[in-house]
TrEMBL record:
Free-text comment on the cofactor: Binds 1 zinc ion per subunit.
Protein name: Carbonic anhydrase
Species for this entry: Aphanocapsa feldmannii 277cV
Upper taxonomic lineage: Bacteria, Bacillati, Cyanobacteriota, Cyanophyceae, Oscillatoriophycideae
UniProt keyword Zinc present: yes
Annotated family: Belongs to the beta-class carbonic anhydrase family.
Amino acid sequence: MDRRSLLRTLGLPAGAALLSVTLRGPADKAVASPLKACHPENPLAALKAGNARFIALEQRLRTIKDSARRQQVLADHVLDNCHLGAMVLKEGQAPWAGIVTCADSRVPPEWVFDTSPGDLFVVRSAGNTAFDDAVASMEYAVSALGMKLIVVMGHSGCGAVSAAIEQDPLTPLLTQLVQPIRAAIPQGLQDLPQAIRRNAEAAADTMVSKSALLASAVAAGDLQISSAVFDIASSRVTFL
């Protein structure tokens, strides 16, 4: 019996799914800590699988015109995922992946990777660069929370990368923001998709070059740092 059927059989509301770990997926396994009940064995594979689910959901929703039916499909989809409820999350956090991505409102990592509260440790800033606070945040997640994966994710049509290419006059703070993007892009490159890829790859590399802690974790095999690009039109994440 799946989670939805069980809730309906017991006469419980859908919100009851958020009170504890769900009964599906990794939560079925015995774990040392409730905070790790939803941890996948392979975080990178889990992100890829989550994005595939998100794409399938988006495609399905496009075919549904009735708003009530759309809401039901979304609710059922959420209930199918492994969740840690508030009573578990109030005790702490143990995210299984870190995402450094753009502040663009069209790029919500938790949706893009079909995850739940407590799964991802996210840092967002226009242009998804490896600025000092982003690197420090990931150092904390790796050293204090035991996180094993960091993904730097750019996205299609990134305004910050476009501004870096165009060389238009910017405010002093915006100039400072796009400086690492300009440093990552070969001089004269005008192809925006290629520049977005290069920027994500450079930010992933900078994570290691800026941080001895992250570099040591990578060298020891305790941490993987990857880069990716999210295509808004297709909802697909391509790992580089």
